[in-house]
Structure formats: C-alpha cells, structure tokens
Amino acid sequence: MGLFLAGVAVWLSRIEDWRSYTPLAGGGGAVGEESGYAHDEKPSGLIRWLTTVDHKDIGILYGAYSIIAFAVGGIMVILMRTELLTPDEAIIGSQFYNSLLTSHGITMLFLFGTPMIAAFGNYFIPLLVNAEDMAFPRINAIAFWMLPPGALLVWAGFLVVPFTDIQPAQTAWTMYTPLSAGVGTGTQAGVSGLGIDFMLLGLHFTGLSATMGAINFIATIFTDRGSDVNWANLDIFSWTMLTQSGLILFAFPLLGSALIMLLLDRNFGTTFFLAEGGGPILWQHLFWFFGHPEVYILALPPMGLVSFILPKFSGRKLFGFKFVVYSTLAIGVLSFGVWAHHMFATGIDPRIRASFEAVSLAIAIPSAVKVFNWTTTLWGGNLRLTAPMLFCVGAVSNFIFGGVTGIFTAAIPIDLVLHDTYYIVGHFHYILMGLLAFTVFAGIYYWFPIITGKMYQKRLAKWHFWLTMIGTNITFFAMLLLGYLGMPRRYATYTFGVGPQQIIEVLHQVTTLGAFILLVGQIIWVWNMIQSWYEAPTLQDNDPWDLKETGQFTNEWGWNERRLETAITDGGEEEETAMTDGGDPVDGSADTE
Ligand code: HEM
Ligand SMILES: [Cu+2]
Questions:
Q1: Could you tell me if residue 29 is inside a domain?
Q2: Per the domain annotation, does 238 fall within a domain?
Q3: What pLDDT was estimated at residue 451?
Q4: What's the CA-to-centroid distance between 205 and ligand 1, angstroms?
Q5: Of the candidates 20, 66, 337, 542, which lies 20 to 30 Å from 512 by C-alpha distance?
Q6: CATH number, domain at 172?
Q7: Are 170 and 185 in contact (CB under 8 A)?
Q8: Domain tally, the chain
Q9: Ligand 1 pocket at CB < 6 A
Q10: pLDDT of residue 496
Q11: Residue 164 backbone phi and psi in degrees, to 5
C-alpha cells in the first residue's frame, strides 16, 4: 500500500505544471479575478477529472456516477426478482433479500435519481441561460465529490459483510423507527447494526451534496443569466430545475436533521423516536415531510424534460407554456402539504387525515394540467418519432398510470385496503421508472450530439425504447394486480394458507419476466452509448434534429454551433482545446424558447 501511494506521488509530481492549472471558469464572483486564465488548456487524463470545476465536466461526472448507481440498483433488484420466481425461500435468504430491498430503494432514489437530474442541470442550465458556468464552480465540484463517499457508506454493509459481523441495513428505504432505532435488527446477538449507521451517514453526504447543488442552480438562474434570457423566455427545463432546487432547499436539511436525531438515538441514548420519548410516529412525520417533496424533486425536472423535448419533435411550441410553469410552482408549494397521506394507516386523528386527503387530491390537478398540455402539444402536430420523442411519449403514457393510481391511494378508504401492498410499489414505479428513467433516456438521446459530438445508433435506440416500454408496463401493471389481490410489499416469500395462491404466483413470475425484459433493454442501451461514443463518426451537422426549421434552435445548440465553428477557424488540429473552449458567447445569436 505504501509503495502504491509513493508511486502515485511520483507520478503526480511528474505531471508538468499541474499545480499552476487554473480551472476553466468564468462567471461567479469568487473566481472572477482569474477569468484572464479562463482559456488555459485543461490538464489531461485523470487529473482533469479530479480537479475539474467546469460545469460540463462535472455534469458528465454526475452522469457517469448515476449510471453506475443505476446499474448497481438494477443488479440488486434482479436478484430480488429472481428470488420471487418461487413462493419459498430459494436462491437468497430473506435477511439478504431485506438488505437488497433497502439498498435498491436508497440507491435508486439518492444515488441515481437526484444526481442524474443534477447531471442534466449542470451540463445544460448554464448553456440554456447563457451563463459562462455555474455561479459557484468550486462548490459545484465539492457537491459532486460528496457523492462517492456517500455511495461507499450506503453500500458499506455489503462491502464489509465478508470480513466482519456487520450486516447491511434491513430497514427499507423509509427507515421506520423503532426498527431502525435499534430495536429488532441491529441488536440481534452477534450481529452489528453498524450497517445502518453507515447508511445514515452516507445519506447525510448525499443530502449535503443535493443542498449545495440546489443553492448553485438557484444562484446561477437568478444571477448569471445572459442578457438575452429573462423570466419571460426562461426555458421550461430551467423553470422546473429552479422549483426543484427550492424544494431541495427546504426538504433535504430536514432529512439531515432527522438522520442526525436517529443516529443520536442509536448511539448516544437519546429518545427522539422511542416510545418513552418522542414516539416512533415522529419519525414518520419528519421522514415524509421530506419524503413527499422528495418524490416531486424526482418528478419535476423529468416533467421539465418532457415539456422541453416533446415540442421539438412535434414541430410546434409547447402548448400553454405559462400554465406549465404555474402548475410546476403549484406542485412545488402543495407538495409540502400532503405528507401524511403516507400515514393514513397509522391511526392518526381522522380530522387531520381528511385534510391531507383533500390536499393530496388537489395536487393531482396541476399534474393533470401538464398531461393536458403535453397531449395538446402532440395533437395535430408534425410528429417525428425519434428515440428521444418515443421516450417522451412513453413517459407521458406511464405518468398517466402513475398519477391515476396515486389519486386512488389518496382516498382514505381505498388506501386503507391498498396500503403496504404491491399496488403502492406499482404506483410509484410507474412514475420513477416510467417517467424519471424514461425522461433521463430521452434527455441523453436528445443531447447525445452535444455531449459527445456523435450520433447514437438509431436502430438500437428503438430496440431500447420498445424493450423498456414493454418491460415497464408488464412489470408494474402486474404489481398493481398483485396489490389488488392483497400481496403485501417487502416480503421474500409468499406462501399463503388462504387466497388465490396460484394467480399470485403467476403474477409474480410475470413481474420477474418484465424485469428481465427491462434488463435486456438496458444492456442494449449501455452498449449503444459506449460504442457510439467511441466509434461513431464525428457529426458534421450543427442541427441534427432540424430544429431551425421550426424556430426551436435553443441556446444550448447555439452554443454547440459556436463551439464547432471555433474548432474550424482554429484549424481544427487541437480538437481537445476546441471541445472544451466554448468560444465567446455571442449575445442574442440564438433563439430562445
Ligand atoms: C397525482 C399525484 C399523486 C398522488 C395523489 C399520490 C398519492 C400517493 C399516496 C396516497 C401514497 C401512499 C400510499 C400508501 O403507502 O398507502 C403514495 C405513495 C408513493 N408515491 Fe405517490 N402520489 C402522486 C404522485 C407521485 C409522484 C409524482 C411520485 C414520484 C415521483 C410518487 C411517488 C410515490 C412513492 C415513492 C410512494 C411510496 C413510498 C413508500 O411507501 O415507499 N407519487 N402516493
Ligand atoms: Cu406522497
């Protein structure tokens, strides 16, 4: 180990001039005095990625990190679905199943969802609003570098289990007390509950990261806009990112406090969440006061991506732009007033319950407004079914399923039957897989030419879409049916003495089949991305989507065009410089939304 470190030190010292490297950043006050160096070349290789404060590089780092997390979370769920092929404990034990279940949820929400959205925000918001970089480039880098230790801590239980008696957490992603406070798992003889402590600390890192990122997005959109971007023509994706950042600012610090309180309960003898103290239900209030806004933190930017990309392939502007913005803001405000709809079955005061039912039903209205606007944008449009468009249309369709099932559970009498069944799992996956993941794919395909300078393979992308669309609907529709049959969530086995055992078995197998279809689709996607990035010919066309024809050539494409022109006038021999040097922004040269 010592030799290895010495080797790294020698290698670093041999890299010419790396100490004098000045980050490529303009804009923000903190680095203003260095803007004279802004056109220095970047160092190459690993050092570039470790030291970068360029928003585009950080965006790519966020993206790579999130996709790795997506793969890890995906492998976890494939193991779980394989176990569920048969009603008895067959392949993995139920303890391990519980650990996978916990980690799958945490990984997908905190290590994939939030960072993946930040990836798009980092790369494209400065380009869309004509800023030179994020407002605080260095804070931006710190926010990203909080994430790898966060992931290591969240997964720590799995990483150390072969060597110690530490078990990965088995609390489910909601970490309900008293279980997570050390009653039950965690205090079993011979088993250390440190896995839970690690996970809580890891979550704390991701929360800090998200909060710093949110402050940066807000500051960038408010203070660093180019002179041609104002509130009236700010694009819809930036609007949703702005609202989402506001939600993060109020929700994540609360999660952070609750996590600290739980850590204190577990390790220092406090009683915030114990029966003799604040009571276990207190955790549910704090958690869901964060948790419900969190689901919109994960849904608003995807809605923004649909609103942004869908019109580009419909040959017309987004229908009712203002109403999409208003509904975004309305969802942002209302999302803080519905948290107790996750607690209808806990025995809280029925009067409180009723008011939460009302607000939950109300929040469906702005969501439906968006669906209406997307549909009317499509209606009579000149549709071009490219891969990003297919994923947008698929996302709208899936979101309708997710939204409508949400309205059912918002009604108390229905929820009392469906709560904690697979119906709930179906509901939120229709949104998290069906909307969030779909729009992530749409965004990556749409901007692939900007990020890589290449075009993906269109045939593979279509395969990816259809496998993902079919897989999603098989998997999660079967889950809705399982829920109606009363199948409880979070169980590794399902041998019932009563009830329609046979149908439940078949539906579980159908669900697993759907998951495997999804897996095949994602393998095709990863192959397409890597292969196209390395081997596809460099794209000569500045406008691969023919956006100019319909007057939708937005700022980020304008920036890309200037970059390519700079590359040509430079003689093009130093491609790396041209790629990273955006050239001087020419105000007003590009159309805005
Ligand atoms: C149309 C608006 C929506 C309504 C009325 C709604 C309603 C509900 C209700 C009442 C529950 C609790 C059910 C129970 O546990 O018994 C629930 C669970 C959930 N919803 Fe929604 N929802 C809506 C939209 C969304 C969106 C947009 C997302 C995600 C981006 C989402 C994600 C979730 C998640 C993750 C859970 C389950 C949490 C858990 O227990 O693990 N929902 N929803
Ligand atoms: Cu909720």
A1: no
A2: yes
A3: 95
A4: 25
A5: 66
A6: 1.20.210.10
A7: yes
A8: 2
A9: 174, 295, 298-299, 341-342, 360, 363-364, 367, 403, 406-407, 409-410, 415, 419, 424, 427-428, 431-432
A10: 84
A11: -135, -175
The per-residue pLDDT for 541 is: 86
Looking at the CA of 357, name the nearest ligand: 1
Q: Which pLDDT value is given to residue 184?
A: 52
How many A from CA of 338 to the centre of ligand 2? 6
For residues 235 and 344, state if they share a domain.
Answer: no
Residue 347's alpha-carbon distances to 221, 228, 252, 416, 450, in angstroms, are 43, 54, 27, 11, 53
Q: Are residues 345 and 465 in the same domain?
A: yes
Q: How far is the CA of 322 from the centre of ligand 2 (A)?
A: 26
The predicted structure's pLDDT at residue 280: 92
Considering the domain architecture, whether residues 212 and 359 belong to the same structural domain is answered as no
Separation CA 21–CA 41 (nearest Å): 8
**85 Cα–ligand 2 center, Å:** 30
Complex-level ipTM? 0.88
* 330 and 447 belong to one structural domain: yes
Backbone angles phi, psi at 401, to 5 degrees: -60, -50
The reported pLDDT for the residue numbered 93 is 87
Residues 222 and 327 occupy one common structural domain: no
Residue 407's domain comprises 299-559
Which residues, including other chains, have CB under 8 Å from residue 345's CB and lie 6 or more apart? 415, 416, 419, 420
CA angle at residue 202 from 201 to 204, to 5 degrees?
Answer: 65
Judgement on whether residues 67 and 211 belong to the same structural domain of the protein? yes
Question: Of 202, 222, 243, which closes a domain?
Answer: 243
Ligand 1 closest atom vs CA 410: 10
**Per-residue model confidence (pLDDT) at position 41:** 67
Please give the pLDDT value at position 372: 96
Same domain, yes or no: 304 and 226: no
Return the structure tokens found at 529.
């991305």
For residue 367, the ligand closest to its alpha carbon is: 1
Q: How far apart are CA 495 and CA 485, in angstroms?
A: 14
Q: DSSP letter for 488, please.
A: B
Domain membership of residue 279 (yes or no) is no
What's the confidence (pLDDT) of residue 48? 87
Residues 438 and 324 in one domain: yes
pLDDT tens readout for residues 567-588: 766 554 444 433 444 444 444 3
Under-70 pLDDT residues of the chain: 1-41, 183-192, 568-593
Q: Which residues place a Cβ less than 5 A from the ion ligand 2?
A: 292
**Which tokens is 292 given?**
């419900």
